[in-house]
Amino acid sequence: xxxxxxxxxxxxxxEENYITTKNKKAHPEKMEIKKFCKRCxxxxxxxxxx
Length: 50
What we know:
Layout: E1 3-10, E2 16-23, E3 32-37, E4 42-48
Antiparallel strand pairs: 1-2, 1-4, 3-4
């Protein structure tokens, strides 16, 4: 199965906030998305945790 779970981490406070999936064959690069961080209390960039 090509879909794998991954954890999204806030780039400002390093809090691990979101769990999602992605197709690693179609998108091998790391995911980067703007999401709301509860700890920072604002919209921040979240990157895929290695």
